[in-house]
Amino acid sequence: MRHTQSDLVHPLFVERWSTRAYTDEPVPDRDLEAMFEAARWAPSSFNAQPWLFVYTASPEEHDRMVRILVPANQAWAASTPRLAILFTRKRFSHNQRENGSAAFDAGSAWMSFALQAHHMGYSAHAMKGFDHEAAFDIGGVNPDDYAVMCMLAVGRPADEDEPEPRSPRKDQRDMAQPLSSSVLQGAESAS
Ligand SMILES: Cc1cc2nc3c(=O)[nH]c(=O)nc-3n(C[C@H](O)[C@H](O)[C@H](O)COP(=O)(O)O)c2cc1C
Question: Domain segments of the chain: what residues?
Fold first, then answer.
């Protein structure tokens, strides 16, 4: 059970979590597409929508993605029904200038994806622990044009796993770390 400091917060935000144990229930394309569709509506600088999700559709593609994960992630993510790699386009298409907001925008898209996944009873888990160079090859994209953000695992969470207590939320439960530790009003100094 996760606790929040405001009873006005929608449970989706508080109850979303990153499992490390999935059932073997497949994630149908239709469900995965709903997550990508949620991501598609994320806000982005110049409405450039610089994110690109490359997902697995066959056991061979799945194995290829599993092989580039670091061992610690392979240990739990290999049995995940679906994996994907999230890239961003480095430049705006309208003027070819560098898009300095691409990573920020991809983060918004990932969060929309994760919340939609949770809404449908799935758990989406982001991973940074993998061979980023090899990801370009698997995604079939050019490192001159794209940057690697993260990999995603998606599936139904198995009953044996449960959200890990983690310091901010544990502290919040004790009310030892108030919202003011991450939110400042106006020109207050953080120091
Ligand atoms: C960009 C990013 C990279 C992450 N990389 C990994 C990873 O390589 N392996 C892993 O097990 N979890 C990874 N995580 C998951 C975080 O550890 C997790 O989101 C965090 O502990 C909070 O837990 P929660 O998502 O269940 O609330 C990553 C999360 C993000 C957003």
Answer: 18-161
Tens digit of each residue's pLDDT (9 = 90 or more) over 71-82:
999 999 999 999
Q: Which of 13, 69, 127 to mutate to test the pocket of ligand 1 (most atoms within 8 A of CB)?
A: 127
Which residues are within 8 A (CB) of 147 and not within 5 positions of it... i.e. 6 or more apart?
87, 88, 90, 102, 103
**DSSP state letters, 120-153:** TT-EEEEE--B-HHHHHHHHT--TTTEEEEEEEE
Centre a 10 Å sphere on the Cβ of residue 102 and count the other Cβ atoms it contains.
Answer: 24
Ligand 1: does its nearest atom lie under 6 Å from the Cβ of 17?
Answer: yes
d(CA 51, CA 172): 33
Choose the CATH number for 18-161 among 3.40.109.10, 3.90.380.10, 3.10.290.10, 3.30.230.10: 3.40.109.10
Give pLDDT tens digits for 9-37. 899 998 999 999 999 999 999 999 999 99
Residue nearest (by alpha carbon) to ligand 1 atom 19:
18
